[in-house]
Amino acid sequence: MKIKSLTTYTVPPRWLFLRIETDDGVVGWGEPVLEGRAASVAAAVEELSDYLIGQDPTQIEDLWTVMYRSGFYRGGGIHMSALAGIDQALWDIKGKALGVPAYELLGGRVRDRIKVYSWIGGDRPADTAKAAREVVDRGFTAVKMNGTEELQYLDTWDKVDRCLANVAAVRDAVGPEIGIGVDFHGRVHKPMAKVLLRELEPFRLMFVEEPVLSEHVDGFVDVLRQSPIPIALGERLFSRWDFKSVLASGAVDIIQPDPSHCGGITEARKIAHMAEAYDVALALHCPLGPIALATCLQIDAGCYNATIQEQSLGIHYNTSNDLLDYLVDPSVFTYADGQVRIPTGPGLGIEVNEEYVIERAAEGHRWRNPVWRHSDGSFAEW
Ligand SMILES: [Mg+2]
């Protein structure tokens, strides 16, 4: 079997799908995208195709190594997202060629379902509490919200109070049993992160995500280690080498690599196993589309430390299209009792509706995240 072609499709709401076809007709799908940089990742996939066309798609470890190491320059969001989507499609092809799910080729599964959480917003207490109640009524047992609006290095206590009011409203609405994750989204600088982590202690949170940007962890280790709230981060780290110092710091309790940004199944599993050696949990980042979620579930199936899975159904980004629109059989992601079953079909376990992908790619997208400003006119992290 040889790789014959690689085709990318830019599809709404903000995704990029990759179709790899082989000379014997087996087709694999991947989702190589960095949100807001879909065209750059598509170009990187196209460049990597020079080597890939004509290669045996089943030799994934060797292809991964060549794609990672052979360009001299390596790593970062664009390169590792391109590599990720290609790797996903290769696992899809190999599984389909052999008639087994990818996890079966990776040692089998340690679970047949995993807990999921739902996004509930976070900008206004009344809305956030209502959204939390609604998703809990639909069976979710965990939710995630944004903690704050934009925050200056030193900001005012009314913003801290609004964050606390927001989280309190959600806790009141859902009761003590529901997991609440609060995402600081890299918006918070060290001085305010210290304050917020302390003030949020009474709410018994599931975790705080990106309390500071990953690149500031080394200067914040003492606070993070001492926080009684579990600390999660990792969506902006792209490889084993990026995670190495974060894990060694002892500051992080849950890592959140994104298998569409960190080199696919091959690399995400290695990162997960590194984390297991530090007794750190895995909660794969996935605000993306159906191929990305299917990929995550193949990894969750085989990684003992996988704890909870993000998924994007109904997330605020999904306006023109949602998670299930591009699947032949959307029931593959049916959630029950706050969990989703690991798909057991061959490859990534889903069937992509190719006709609909082509139809929506004609519209495409140019999704960009908003640019925020502080009241003094300076840039604010979103
Ligand atoms: Mg996040």
UniProtKB/TrEMBL annotation:
Molecular functions per Gene Ontology: galactonate dehydratase activity; metal ion binding
SMART domains from the UniProt entry: MR_MLE
Residues annotated as domain Mandelate racemase/muconate lactonizing enzyme C-terminal: 125-230
This protein's record includes keyword Transferase: no
Alphabetical list of SUPFAM superfamilies matching this protein: Enolase C-terminal domain-like (SSF51604), Enolase N-terminal domain-like (SSF54826)
InterPro entries the UniProt entry points to: DgoD-like, Enolase-like_C_sf, Enolase-like_N, Enolase_C-like, Galactonate_deHydtase, Mandel_Rmase/mucon_lact_enz_CS, Mandelate_racemase_C, Mandelate_racemase_N_dom
GO biological process: amino acid catabolic process; D-galactonate catabolic process
Keyword Lyase: yes
Family annotation (PROSITE patterns): MR_MLE_2
Keywords: Lyase, Magnesium, Metal-binding
Superkingdom classification of source: Bacteria
Pfam families found in the cross-reference section: MR_MLE_C (PF13378), MR_MLE_N (PF02746)
PANTHER family hit by this protein: D-GALACTONATE DEHYDRATASE, D-GALACTONATE DEHYDRATASE-RELATED
Alphabetical list of NCBIfam families matching this protein: PRK14017.1 (NF010624)
Name of this protein: Galactonate dehydratase
Organism of provenance: Rhodococcus jostii
